[in-house]
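Team,

Forwarding the record for the chain on the shared tracking sheet. I've put the sequence and predicted structure together so nobody has to dig through attachments.
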Amino acid sequence: MRLLRLMNPFSRRLARNKRGGVLIEFAFGAMILLTTMSGIIELSMVMFIQSLVEGGLREASRFGITGSIPEGMTREDRIRQIVGVHSLGLINMDTAQLTTKIYASFADIGKPEPFVDNNPANGTRDPGESYTDVNGNGQWDTDMGAAGMGGPVDIVLYTISADWPLLTPLVGPLLSSNGIIKINASVAVRNEPYVVGED
């Protein structure tokens, strides 16, 4: 009881004291402001990198459709080089995953290989149900595309996936569990009717 009586004047005096209040309010406000500013910068950088990678992949596919093979390197190496140049070196092309898949038509992109849906007819391929091995790899796939750059007039889907490390630890945990954002881009094109072996 005596302790409560002693605390009462102290708490009233503390409530009347305004010194340092502005500093405490600024500390709370500054934290919110810094987090918001960091978030805006991080999101802007992610959108910028996404745009660069998409543009680079588009330019790379324009080279890929020609069937040209540069002297001293493969088509795949040249395509990686083009994406790297157009992303201003901000993406590590050594760790980026670049894949190309060949399709007979644009409508086939991302579709599973056809199969006979026997009993039970459940819309999914069960073990033992026959299928058409479109990509020729000896197994049923959820995507019928065959790996490769394709030949004349083939449809080719270019896909790239790269890691972008977030710049500030302040916002990182809010946007990603490990501080890395996955940048993905795809473009589908039809190869030109080039003559194989000619540049």
